[in-house]
Amino acid sequence: MNLAGSGVILAARLGFLFVSLLVLVKGQALLAPEEARELNHAIDAGLRGDRLGCNIQPEPVSLSFSFRFEAGYTVTCPVRVFDGKEGQVYSFVRVTPENGESVVLGERFGIPAIPPDPSGDFKKVRAEIEFSGAFAIGEGQYSVEVIVADHRKRLVRKQWRIHASRHRSEQSVQIAMEPASVAPLLTQPWDGGVERPGTGRRVTIIVDAAPINPRALKLHAWDRALLLDCVSSLLAHTDFRSVRLIAINLDQQREIFREDNLDRKGWSDLGHRLRDLELGTVSYKVVEDQQGWSNLLIRLLRQEAASREPSDAVIFVGPTSRITSRLPAELLPKEGKGEFFYIEYYPAWLNGGEFPDALAHITRALGGEVLKIHSPGELAQAIQKIQKRLAPQDTGPAPH
To answer: Check: CATH 3.40.50 for 201-390?
Structure first.
């Protein structure tokens, strides 16, 4: 075998895939059949290249709040491997069900330019760049291969096996994906339809785009998955006539997304917006105004109350926040008769340390209900409770 010729061919295939990914919108996507074949050929032929000094760490499989199994990985790269220059990193994931066909996903990430340390030596810079990826699967056994490469065709790869199955407490959950199937994370069970003329209620969903770990400085793939999963399950299993969706970040004290009539395109835009959110970047104005989060919430609630068509319900969704202060009651809007709910996620490791956050205080002050969830089963129960409370009341037969 001509190793030199093989290396040229493999490099060409990798370059072809890079060009293909450049035209993708931001976010994870299925590779087209031709591109998937190229990557499969390159992997099976023994893909080689100069080593990219990054580490790939598999993340455990778990049943998600969209009632699918999700698995993923984290990539950590010292900034010095990029010599402080702006560039691109490409992540390719091949997921192969046992006795099934491989599915190939691709994603690209921008690497920002990083200034050197005061001495001008990048080798002394100890900061790291971190990004993550994830995908959805049905029950079964899978082989996972991840290849991370940069624009200089350096690469690092890792392979492992995963098993997706329900725990004893999850046996009653109906899995939303067929066994031995794979899908990008952004593919959700909600079909984009909410308008049902004459039925349902108007609802406003306010998503707090915060990480599960209150100490984290950015959203990871599993943080985004939690938010999207909870909202998509809420939409898929309730009867809403129209949905206004607003995404905020209390730490950054800003609104990051708004769609007054949510549809499939708006849903896709939300996923991309969450992916781009870097929680480590905080405006100097936020530092100067530590109570700016309260002004944001008051403004949103007053806008809702003053709307020409206020929603029948406002539903907060998000992980429990690091902000636990109360808003003075006199600042909350008095007008409006809508229902209020807060689907508040608590991770298992916070068991015993569950304290109400700012959104829980607001929800109760407005006469609403806080629905704590720790598992997909509890989310299903919370959705059923919301649906029951918002169901049109049966007023009996019309008078003669």
So the answer is: yes
- pTM, two decimals, is 0.70
Pull the structure tokens for residue 156: 């690092």
CATH superfamily of 11-184: Immunoglobulins (2.60.40.10)
Tokens of 138: 């049905």
Q: What are the extents of the domains in the chain?
A: 11-184, 201-390
Per residue in 4-47, pLDDT tens? 344 444 455 555 555 554 444 456 777 778 778 877 877 777 77
The CA distance from 228 to 312, in Å, is 22
Q: Note the pLDDT tens digit of each residue in 278-288.
A: 655 555 555 45
Range 284-290 contact pairs with CB under 8 angstroms and sequence separation of 24 or more: 285/253, 286/251, 286/252, 286/253, 289/253
Q: What does the DSSP assignment read for 121-180?
A: -GGG---EEEEEEEEEE-SEEEEEEEEEEETT--EEEEEEEEEE---GGGTTS--SS-TT
